[in-house]
Amino acid sequence: MNRRMVRMYEAAISNNLNLDFPVNISDANAEVFTSQMPTRSRARTLDRDNPYAWAMLETFRTNIGGDEPFRLEMNAGRRVGQKWVKNADKNRAVEDAWREAGLKENCTTRRDMSRLELDLQAITSMIRDGGVIARHRRAYKQNKFGYAVQPLEIDRLDHYFNGRNAKTGNDIKMSVEMDEFDGVVGYWLLSKHPGAIFWTANMRDKQREFVPAEDAIVLFDLRTRAEQVAAVSRLASIIQRLHRIDQFDLAHVTAAIWASCKPFFIIQEFPSAAEYVPDFIKAQLSRTMDEQGIGNEGEGDKVAQSEPGTGEILPWGQKPMLVDPKFPIEAAAGFKKDNLRAACAGAGVPYFIVGQDLEAVNFSSGRIGLEAFHDSCKVLQRHFIDNYRRPHFNEWLKSALSLNQIAGCSLADYEELRQAAIFHGRRWPYIQPLQDAQADALQLQMRLTSRDRIIAESERGGDYEQVASELASDIETDESHGLPEFDATAKPGQQSGGEQKQGESGEPQSGEMDLAGPTDETDAKV
């Protein structure tokens, strides 16, 4: 049929050039079912053995979590007119108790893992494995808050366990029990990790325990299809590429070793019938071949162990044939760089960070690349806060209040405090501190933002009330030591209090921004 007469998209056309590009419409869970185990296993192998995979996961850990993952800010208070008045004592009490609950002896049932490690581990598992599990352990007696989480690997959800619950009539998809509307009812968790080496003989039948949905936190990575139950590793599209880099490195090293040994083969030459060979030469050749075992098997044999910088004298009738391993390979660097760039694009991390390749990075390109990556991290931070941190905090808060472990608060305050909790994801330092600070000041002057928002989005985080309290403490300390009053608004060249030094013009210095704006038509035109 004439191709021009076929009404279809170019992408739908099949020919000899795309026979390896299959066409099928399958359920998302069917694809996950067949791919989950090998994908997760290979992702973990790369995490252990591939430096670029490790660098990618480390980049996610430090940018999604950082050194203080998902910092809590309490905003409990009341509205007075148009102003929100915070209850500083109550807010500080909850924040202090939450900080104490994050210590390693209080955070998890293991009592050897702080909340920092718990969060970074959960981020790693979400990216590498596709998800992570944490069970709520209420009425926990090993800490004063009566609550801890039990971290579990996502492998406890056996994706081979599918069917229907005969008692409830609910479908079970990859160990997740769902009602008629595909709402999660609970999880069928294995009593032990399926690969644990400490399983006893009577545990080999994969004992399962049903855990209601409200008793566990199951955090999956962002799922890309509407009916998808479980997520796969975020590294799924690049696992083969990263392994290809490992294979290429191994081949490259092997070629280098082969080239350094200067290997060669020996070609045996016998005179033809037309050539005259004296008898004493024939006898000598025969004895030499018998002694060395050459030609007895009809195959090539290894003459001697080859070592770098060595050689030997060959008998009569033999000559060496050198082997060229084609090393070094000129295209090696380009091949490896192209594969690593594709892998970084698939993982969504900047290539120049993972590859430590800054030779072609300038200030502008580096900033654009980092801003795009930071936007992706903000999405994952919000996903983590909504689906992991808040359920964790809500259960802890209820238990702590019921045991009167938060000063000045009771269980009656639970709903207020739950709604007042704000979790902040990690933010990054200014790339151009002077210009970025001037932009913040301009937005404040134009009433486009508030000091609270600027501080919350800064690298250090916090809120204006906290900063104001610290500034007041600084002023009190200065006065107690007899130091002059510090004027943060004074421009360079001015003394404290705005007094200008003699001989200074008062004009904005190079790199400064005059926030007062133009004073007349001439200035405005300029």
What does this structure look like?
With 526 residues, the protein is an alpha+beta fold. It contains 15 helices and 14 strands. A five-stranded antiparallel β-sheet has the order 6-7-8-9-10, with no helix packed on it. It has a three-stranded antiparallel β-sheet with strand order 5-4-11. A two-stranded antiparallel sheet has the order 1-14. The model is unreliable at 501-506 and 508-526 (pLDDT under 50). The protein has helices at 28-49, 51-65, 88-101, 104-107, 115-128, 239-261, 279-292, 332-347, 351-354, 363-402, 414-420, 433-445, 451-456, 464-480, 521-525, and strands spanning 71-74, 77-80, 83-86, 131-138, 147-153, 163-164, 171-173, 176-178, 184-190, 208-212, 216-220, 264-268, 318-322, 421-424. It has three domains: 24-235 and 350-428, no CATH class; 264-293 and 314-322, no CATH class; 429-487, no CATH class. Helix 1 (28-49) crosses helix 2, helix 2 packs across helix 5 (115-128) and helix 2 crosses helix 10.
